[in-house]
User: Which sequence fits this backbone?
């Protein structure tokens, strides 16, 4: 008798529509400038028939490509070789095989289009992938859940054979799957989160959007450069003094900042809407998202690194964000993290107790050498020096005012900020953990269990030798953390940490 998914499977039939609309959306994005040109200028009546024919032909080609892509996308579970197999490709065939031992998790994602069509994305994350190696984007709800259960059961069965001594205990525990606690992020907490985080992300999105539109309009001669040159000249004539330019620029920045904050609030609401975190005996179940609904199951042994992020305002509101890094071939936490924002202190402690096999005890705390602060000041002063050099050529008559402003910025902002950043940086080594703390406004605590360390890099440039200073980098399968300019006294604690790694018999993933 054939086991589930042992034969090559197609996606659900509505997947043809999903592929078609996805390709149509990419086509619209690629031809955005052309469409913008026709909308503003209007098509010439002599070419109306050709335009309609071209659109119809394009839609037919996209439909044909979607059908071929649907039938060329097949997947199955190879139980004999203990691996998941995927074949895809329209013009060339790509075959991907993932051993069960490499699979980190299997979870669901749903975009708005997928909700309308009625399909799910099943994402399979692996330890050896630079990203999401497999994403099956169009399965029915029942088929998606069946694939998740069958695949994770096969993965767990493989892991239990690897850990034969604990297999009976794990099998018995697996039968009991009751909810221990549950936390749901309320709309009010989402609003607080939006108002207290990502201050400059919305501003950056506005600048990118405006710059992109302006460039596209310029490429198709929809704007005349002369009129903007005249407008810029009039602006400089009206506000020729540096103080006036500074005040007006500050007002514009405040306006853009407020709009950016509104955009950030909307983005956070869409991304983390209806966030629900549930702990069972064997996993943390996370579900969130309005535009793209994501369901993830996290197990302790899959977690490589934990980061807790907050800021002074969020501290007072009892809001913190947890970023969990799973195993990946990329040595970069930002590429492998799963973010869970808006957690209260109680939930953070519950997450730590569940994910970590040992309680957190105090250890030895190390601080960087004072020369790091000097280096930070030098690096931060370079943009100001460059600004002064450029200003000396453009507005030489106002150098006194410009230099005064630059000195105020350096003395009142840069010097204290870099000092507090230097003071906040620390590394703590305990018998079970390595903990790095950093950040002035966005305060981050990064935690690695010692037995999950993959390597420690010790770096000493020539100019460090006289002071006996070192840079350290701690590598895990889910990312790395570094600590600069530390004295040689830390070396014996590094050796102790590596010794703890060697004697520990726990599996790192």
Assistant:
């Amino acid at each position: 008798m054939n086991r589930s998914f042992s034969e090559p499977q197609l996606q659900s039939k509505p997947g043809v529509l999903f592929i078609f609309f996805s390709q149509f959306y990419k086509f619209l994005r690629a031809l955005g400038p052309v469409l913008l040109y026709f909308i503003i200028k209007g098509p010439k009546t002599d070419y109306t028939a050709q335009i309609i024919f071209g659109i119809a032909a394009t839609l037919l080609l996209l439909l044909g490509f979607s059908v071929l892509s649907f039938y060329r996308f097949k997947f199955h579970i190879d139980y004999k070789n203990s691996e998941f197999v995927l074949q895809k490709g329209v013009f060339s065939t790509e075959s991907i095989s993932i051993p069960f031992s490499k699979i980190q998790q299997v979870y669901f994602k749903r975009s708005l289009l997928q909700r309308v069509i009625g399909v799910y994305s099943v994402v399979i994350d692996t330890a050896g992938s630079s990203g999401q190696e497999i994403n099956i984007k169009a399965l029915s709800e029942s088929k998606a859940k069946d694939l998740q259960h069958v695949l994770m059961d096969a993965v767990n069965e493989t892991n239990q054979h690897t850990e034969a001594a604990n297999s009976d205990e794990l099998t018995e525990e697996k039968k009991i799957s009751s909810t221990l606690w549950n936390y749901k992020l309320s709309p009010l907490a989402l609003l607080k989160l939006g108002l207290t985080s990502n201050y400059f992300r919305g501003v950056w999105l506005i600048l990118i959007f405006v710059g992109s539109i302006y460039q596209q309009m310029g490429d198709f001669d929809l704007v005349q450069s002369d009129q903007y040159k005249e407008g810029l000249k009039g602006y400089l004539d009206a506000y020729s003094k540096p103080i006036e330019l500074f005040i007006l620029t500050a007002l514009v920045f405040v306006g853009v900042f407020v709009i950016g904050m509104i955009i950030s609030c909307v983005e956070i609401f869409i991304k983390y809407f209806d966030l629900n975190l549930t702990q069972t005996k064997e996993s943390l179940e996370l579900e969130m998202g309005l535009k793209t609904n994501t369901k993830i199951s996290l197990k302790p042994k899959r977690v490589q690194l934990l980061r807790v992020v907050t800021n002074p305002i969020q501290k007072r509101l009892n809001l913190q964000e947890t970023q969990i890094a799973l195993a990946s071939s990329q040595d970069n936490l930002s590429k492998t993290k799963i973010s869970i924002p808006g957690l209260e202190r109680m939930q953070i402690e519950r997450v730590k107790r569940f994910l970590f096999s040992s309680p957190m005890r105090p250890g030895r705390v190390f601080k960087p050498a004072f020369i790091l602060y000097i280096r930070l000041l030098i690096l931060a002063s370079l943009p100001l020096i460059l600004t002064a050099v450029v200003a000396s050529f453009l507005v030489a008559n106002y150098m006194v005012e410009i230099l005064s402003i630059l000195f105020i910025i350096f003395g009142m902002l840069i010097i204290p900020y870099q000092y507090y950043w230097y003071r906040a940086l620390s590394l703590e080594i305990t018998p079970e953990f390595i903990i790095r703390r950093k950040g002035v406004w966005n305060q981050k605590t990064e935690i690695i269990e010692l037995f999950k360390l993959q390597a420690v890099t010790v770096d000493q440039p020539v100019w460090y030798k006289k002071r006996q200073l070192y840079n350290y980098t701690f590598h895990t399968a889910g990312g790395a953390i570094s600590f600069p300019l530390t004295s040689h006294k830390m070396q014996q604690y590094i050796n102790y940490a590596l010794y703890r790694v060697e004697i520990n018999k726990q599996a790192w993933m």
User: Anything to note?
Assistant: The longest strand covers residues 479-487. Residues 164-176 have pLDDT under 50 and may be disordered. The CA atoms of residues 55 and 174 lie 55 Å apart. The chain has 16 helices and 20 strands.
